[in-house]
Amino acid sequence: MKVELRNLTKIFPNRNKKVKEDVVAVNDFTFTIPDGKLVGLLGPSGCGKSTTLYMISGLQQPTSGQIFFGEEDVTDLSPENRGVGLVFQNYALYPHMTVKQNILFPLQNLKGADKLSKQDMLERAYQAAKLVQIDELMDRKPSELSGGQQQRVAIARALVKMPKVLLLDEPLSNLDARLRLQTREEIRRIQRETKITTVFVTHDQEEAMSISDMIIVMKKGVVQQIGKPQDVYEDPLNLFVAKFLGTPPINVFEGRIVGGRLFIGDDAVMEYTDVPDQEVFVGIRPEGFILTENGALNCKMSGIDVMGRDVSIVTTNTASVNPVVRSIIDADNNVDAESDGVRYSLKPGKVYIFNKETEERIYAKGRAL
Ligand code: ADP
Ligand code: MG
Predict the structure, then answer these.
(1) Is residue 184 within 8 Å of 101, Cβ to Cβ?
(2) How do residues 270-319 score in pLDDT, each as one tens digit?
(3) Whose CA is nearest to atom 11 of ligand 1?
(4) Which of 94, 165, 344, 366 is most deeply packed, by most CB within 10 A?
(5) How far is 252 from 191, CA to CA, in rounded Å?
(6) Is residue 278 domain-shared with residue 187, that is, in the same domain?
(7) CB of 313 closer than 8 Å to CB of 364
């Protein structure tokens, strides 16, 4: 089922009397989520992710705009009538019920033509439990389960009604690191198997990048960029998106274009023949540095982190916006941690320049110097 958002806007009245402006939690969101895809809705806390999800679910009414499931306008439909499955960060299971009863619960409330026989309900519940691999825990109470198992129950409960759309709001946030990794793979597998159109909300870019067919990056209620994770990573539209994606994060410098050359401090590092003179922000991905004796960019050595196959060189540069400049290079490179400085030449595809005021990307073909 494709899900279409048309000019979706949600404004909350401001209760703080000192501030006049209302809160625009979601601002003119237009996008069609393709049928059967898993879309990651990504952005910092407070950017409007949950509000968007609640509007899709029907738990919140948009201030303006419309929502379509397929060709049907569902904007005024109640949550129960939309056929959505919802999973929240806190698993919200009924503590006094067993796992089986928790999963059965949504089915027992079906009315009229949707009503199922006891046998059918049980079958469906076991199907859903199998899918999330908790079918052996059906007689336990939630308190007898680990966090990951509880979250699986919550997912099974959302799946049991065979929703047309699955909505997940930071479902892994309460899990420890290893379980988070495991459960996100699980969600990906379940989504692929069921082909349910899914919106996965997270503030964790790595999580979104790793499981989504597409990501939507939001900032203060406004969609910044939509695309395949790798495309957005490689081709960010603005500095915010560039900074939000990637671990370690992109290195940002204050730079300037003078006579077709990009300067970071006193170093001319790239040639941009078509860009007029101006101040810019320069973003360089950690993997965009090449260690060379006569490299154009000079940095001061600070330390070396070995991360398995790769080596991360930590340096400083007075033009850097961040305290350190972090590069990732192949472990084959011999780097002397005792040296005063390192010199890098840059990989043009990993260097981005942004307008200093608007922070929008300046599209220009560059050549390394
Ligand atoms: P996210 O899920 O991305 O962290 P939310 O969608 O929860 O963000 O919130 C977006 C903005 O809307 C925030 O500024 C938040 O404070 C505000 N907001 C959310 N719900 C309400 C509400 N019920 N009343 C007033 N403001 C709200
Ligand atoms: Mg939220």
Answers:
(1) no
(2) 999 999 999 999 999 999 999 998 999 999 999 998 877 788 999 999 99
(3) 25
(4) 344
(5) 36
(6) no
(7) no
What is the distance in A from the centroid of ligand 1 to the CA of 309?
41
Instruction: Name which of 81, 62, 87 is nearest 4 in CA terms.
Output: 62
Q: Are residues 231 and 343 in the same domain?
A: no
Domain identity same for 193 and 307:
no
β-strands 289-291, 297-307 pairing? unpaired
Among 47, 31, 28, smallest CA distance to 39 is for 31
Same domain, 191 and 312: no
Do 65 and 91 reside in the same domain of the chain?
yes
CA of 49 to the centre of ligand 1 (A): 8
Q: 361 and 269 in one domain?
A: yes
Range of the domain at 362: 249-368
| Local confidence band at 8 (pLDDT 50, 70, 90 cut-offs) | very high
Q: Can you give the pTM of this predicted structure?
A: 0.92
Task: Specify whether the CB–CB gap between 226 and 237 falls below 8 A.
Answer: no
Query: Cβ neighbours of residue 24 under 8 Å, at least 6 residues apart?
Result: 9, 10, 11, 220, 221
Atom 24 of ligand 1, residue of closest alpha carbon: 12
Final residue of a structural domain among 223, 243, 263: 243
Domain finish residue from 243, 274, 294: 243
Tokens, residue 315:
């340096």
Distance 169 CA to ligand 2 centre (A): 7
The ligand that comes nearest to the alpha carbon of residue 219 is 1
Q: Which atom number of ligand 1 is nearest to the Cα of residue 169? A: 2
Residues with CB under 6 A from ligand 1: 12, 23, 25, 43, 45-51
